């Protein structure tokens, strides 16, 4: 499962990290020999966590003769910020791109992965190591439109179809200050109705017009509303639709003609890690074709390694070709995070009612 909630503002996050204090969350003391063989990472729960703990992590531990300790208790960044820079609580941080940009700004993670130490970087799609990415994106989901197929709605072709008045009362979106899908929708509004993704005035005007809209803070809640028919059209990532493939519900994911927003799963390494060699080996391992295929087909994430060959129905539904990958629109999270407090304040006023 991917958790998309980001409940702290930039100022609140900085304050929270300071309040925790290094001593409150420091990892237990271990000897140098033990530390060298222990890799501390973050990760998701749900299906992702099940596959990782049952298969992926044990295989890595066996191959590299180490112990992997995974923290799945969100939020990660305040804990990392409060730990000593020379002895960080994590060696590898796995989270979404918006939080990785916040982490690199504070010097908590290294901005890039060294391709000399991670050979599988040579086989990733360009988006995975673009200038919009800190570290490396190991998977991505496509954010587009989800719809009910049993309500007589026409199949949408554009993001602008979300504003169609036929969806008044059954339109779904996210609480923007706390959800990265909602945040990504803001620059999309600027692209659709203004001069580009940084045109906030146009974005705010578009958000005013998209009302009425049912807002949730978590994608799991949106999935439930779409499955129940409470919403007929919504913003959602493709894995939130595809994970129910075997159940065959009357829902569909639509990739708008303007492109799909990227929801990246990103790995970074902490500067103070005492096990850098092991950390790089883990990143390389997560980019290996076998691991990429296993996880992609377990959780419906699109792999970053272009050498991966997925089985059906995954190959036809995920971003598995250069042409499909070219439809990805990556959010400039460095820019967004710099404006987040002002955006939060404005959208809270827009959707207050």
Automatic annotation (TrEMBL):
It comes from the Bacteria. The keyword Glycoprotein does not apply. PROSITE patterns: TAT (PS51318). One of its GO terms (biological process) is thiamine transport. Keywords: Periplasm, Signal. GO terms for molecular function: thiamine binding; thiamine pyrophosphate binding. CDD domains: PBP2_polyamine_RpCGA009. GO terms for cellular component: outer membrane-bounded periplasmic space. Gene3D superfamilies: Periplasmic binding protein-like II. It holds the Pfam family SBP_bac_8. NCBIfam families: TAT_signal_seq. This is ABC transporter substrate binding protein. It comes from Azorhizobium caulinodans (strain ATCC 43989 / DSM 5975 / JCM 20966 / LMG 6465 / NBRC 14845 / NCIMB 13405 / ORS 571).
